[in-house]
Amino acid sequence: MKIAKTSIPAAINVPGAIVRQQLGFGDATGYGAMAGEYFSLGAGTDIAPLLKGLEGDLCQSPHWGYVIEGEITVTYSDRQEETVTTGDLFYWPPGHTVRVGKDAEIILFSPQTEHCKVVNHLHSQLCG
Q: Which of 24, 36, 51, 113 gives a 20 to 30 Å CA spacing to 10?
């Protein structure tokens, strides 16, 4: 699920302040502590090979985030793809992989336990 800033409904729109709010943007029920994460990813980065060995060879952590700049395509377990670009809010459910089309800077909020498992796996794949 992704949404551009201009597509988020304004809950408050008065001179000097606009509050945009998208309800029902993913569900964090059952997850514990959340991690705030900042990712800088170069064009051409594809994490699919690094996810080998995880369940379904996919990231099994959900993420909520914002694209500061760049372009990232997420591929879900059903092979559907979605591209997020500068200014998009997004929710990626468990069961996905990503590749970077244009250098990207993103902010992620992820369940700490689930995403640390994935990050540790990526680290072991990169550093052996």
A: 36
